[in-house]
Design a protein that fits this description.
- The complex is a heterodimer of chains A (165) and B (206).
- Chain A has eight helices and no strands.
- In chain A, α5 packs antiparallel against α6 and α6 crosses α7.
- The longest helix of chain A is centred in the middle third of the chain and has 23 residues.
- The radius of gyration of chain A is 17 Å and the shape is globular.
- Chain B folds into two domains: 86 residues, Double Stranded RNA Binding Domain (2-Layer Sandwich); 81 residues, Winged helix-like DNA-binding domain superfamily/Winged helix DNA-binding domain (Arc Repressor Mutant, subunit A), CATH 1.10.10.10.
- In chain B, a hairpin with a 6-residue loop joins β1 and β2.
- Chain B is elongated and about 75 Å long.
- By secondary structure, chain B is an alpha/beta fold.
- A four-stranded mixed sheet of chain B has the order 3-2-1-4, with helices on one face. In chain B, strands 5-6 form a two-stranded parallel ribbon.
- The chains are: A mainly alpha (165), B alpha/beta (206).
- At the A-B interface, α1, α2, α4, α5 and α7 of A face α1, α2, α3 and β4 of B.
Chain lengths: 165, 206
């Protein structure tokens, strides 16, 4: 097929990936809103998208912008509760049992985005850099740092996994 | 960074709670409602079950645009609509509710005329003229290709009537199945001759 596929097929093919990315970046509570805003904006712009464009990278780019919007809207609503998400989680033994979602949420935003867009969104680091800003190397470093930190906070679930591959 | 590392990390991330079909279905429904409210669905579609197999129904805001038999390959039909009409296509069943209801009634023998806004923009020229005259053939009646050609103002264009019927974007609703050969032979049909016979039999029995 030379032309563009029906938008329904785009939702079917990429809907789950975009939701995983939104959840990783925003957490489950706000992910639905970001997903909806992403696909609504994508539907609006879809006729102008070049037929040979990388649809997944395009969607992740939109999701990134929508996630920022959702975060800002949430910040306007939120009551300040201190800086809990940014504390060094790995230094506290009781947080080793946090589930992975919580471990992700505890990452600095840039690391969380780099991990989500590369490992869940499937974007190469050049595209990740284009989305979050900065160099390709910086994007790769942010993802590596994020994964290293995730391993520390979520070590229990990965014990023994590395050796079998 | 090695592939090994990549797959190992991917393995780590599979511990994230997975996305379920029910969650995606709920999000899809919400997307359709908001897209519809924002006039962003250029082509809405759904499929219905019928005695002649699953039918794809597609509509623009103007009206019913396409009815397609399974033999036409619904995915290919939608891909063609994406190219010819707009790629803003969503499985948005509500717009097709009236068409689905009338087709159900028709197949139950309880409806003889379709009362639906149609979007005939997929057809042009003489083919379009033919389509606009096909509903003149009443329920349970048949007409020859030549007779339809005369109705459409080109009495010698029986062959072109055949082409118009074969490319009818709205089978069943625009009754090309009522066009047969002058000698009584049933002729070809885009849904296959068996389907044509079934439709004519249904109308004769009602």
């Amino acid at each position: 097929m030379t032309g563009k596929q029906p938008f329904e097929a785009v939702v079917a093919e990429h809907g789950a990936t975009v939701l995983r990315v939104c959840r990783a970046v925003l957490g489950p509570a706000d992910a639905d809103d970001a997903w909806s805003e992403t696909f609504l904006a994508a539907l609006r712009a879809y006729p102008e998208l070049p037929a040979d464009a990388n649809v997944e990278a395009w969607l992740v780019t939109i999701a990134h912008r929508k996630a920022i919007d959702v975060t800002r809207a949430a910040a306007r609503r939120a009551v300040p509760v201190g800086d809990a998400p940014e504390r060094p989680a790995a230094q506290r033994a009781d947080e080793r049992d946090l589930d992975l979602q919580a471990a992700l949420a505890a990452l600095p935003r840039k690391q969380r985005e780099a991990v989500a867009y590369h490992y869940l969104g499937g974007l190469p680091y050049t595209d990740v850099a284009a989305v979050i800003g900065g160099s390709t190397d910086a994007a790769r470093r942010a993802a590596a740092d994020g994964i290293a930190r995730l391993r520390k906070t979520y070590a229990a679930a990965t014990v023994g996994e590395g050796e079998t591959r | 960074m090695t592939m090994n590392h990549e797959s190992e990390v991917a393995g780590l991330l599979t511990a994230l709670p997975d996305v379920t079909q029910a969650e995606l279905a709920a999000l899809h429904e919400r997307l359709v409602a908001r897209a519809d409210a924002g006039d962003l669905v250029d082509v809405a579609y759904r499929t219905i079950d019928s005695p002649v197999g699953p039918l794809l129904l597609a509509a623009t805001p103007q009206g019913l645009l396409r009815v397609a038999y399974e033999s036409e390959d619904h995915d290919q039909v939608l891909a063609a609509l994406a190219e010819k009409v707009s790629p803003r296509i969503l499985n948005a069943p509500r717009r097709l509710d009236p068409a689905a209801r009338e087709l159900d009634e028709y197949f139950a023998g309880a409806r003889q005329r379709f009362d639906l806004p149609l979007d005939l923009s997929l057809s042009r020229g003489f083919r379009l003229t033919v389509l606009t005259h096909l509903p003149d053939i009443g329920y349970g009646q048949t007409a020859s290709y030549g007779a339809v050609a005369a109705l459409a103002g080109r009495p010698r264009a029986a062959r072109a009537v055949g082409t118009a019927c074969a490319t009818n974007p709205l089978p069943v609703v625009v009754p090309c199945h009522r066009v047969i050969h002058a000698d009584g032979k049933i002729g070809t049909y885009l849904g296959g001759p068996a389907v044509k016979r079934l439709l004519l039999g249904l109308e004769a029995a009602a």
